[in-house]
Amino acid sequence: MKLASWEPRSRGPAPREGSREDAKDAKRLPATSMLVGLVLFWAMPLAAQDLPEGEELRVEVGVEPAVVTVGAPFRSALRVVTPPGTSAEYGDVASSDSLESVAPALRIADTDVVVFTLVAWVTGDSLETRVPVQLTDSGGTLRTEQVRLRLPVVRSVLPARDTVVAPRPPKGLYVPASSGGIPWWWLLALLLTALLVALVAYRILARRRREMAPATVHPRLWALRQLDRAATDFRSSQITGEEVFARVSWVLRSFLDRVDPALSPDLTTTEVLDSLRFISPTVDWAPVLERLLTDSDRIKFGGVPAHVREVEDVMRKGRKWIEAFPLEGSGSDARERAA
After folding, report:
1. Within-domain flag for 101
2. What is the pLDDT of residue 75?
């Protein structure tokens, strides 16, 4: 048996510009819209049941729309009219660089019509693709025919070379919105207020930096001021007892760092105590400092609540230790003499 083809002319609406995103959207097109585009296909009378045995098969194809742009989806329909006792099974369209299938083949209910949704990526009218159709006769014999689909004329989305594209007029200058009627002296007042706040913040930060600078404040005087400030803040309920212990520990370590940079706050408690014994070998200051730092660590890291008596005691002992610590002869020179 031979395959005879019939290609009805399709008059579809004007194509719209498309892209790969449009092609993906074609997967969601309802079957009813496909049927509307294939009205002429269905207008052809079907006489498959009247074909006598041995007569040629008939292939009916249609496309909607007949002209598309690159990337715009289109639908190609196929029906193979077979003699009685012969069935047809349709394969899929193989995608390529120039033609892509973007949705599964749709078989119209109660018919032999199969609709393929495709997208073309090259221009021209020479595109060609075929669909494998497996035929099974009444005796069970199988054979496969490659049936060519009807494809549309594909046009470019770009204008023709001789098309004159008029440039768009330039946009006007951007003019910011007005201040909404706010008087100028209000804006000036806001500006002066911002400058005043910045000046006050700068002076506060500068004063704190001067207080923290080892070269501008004597180590003992700086440490005693910090302890006095901690006591004042605690008695005015600005800080808790636990924060007092943390501040006393910080003051003691910072005081030693100002006395000798070798006693850096980065050292562990054991390293600080060993260095302190080396600096002052004649008087053992380490045990008192060790008790102060240990009590502070117990409150800071152990989660132990600090009572008022303990807070007053640690501030008193810390102040006494700083006042009694000998600054004369300490530092690198003292270590060298001890060595």
Report:
1. yes
2. 93
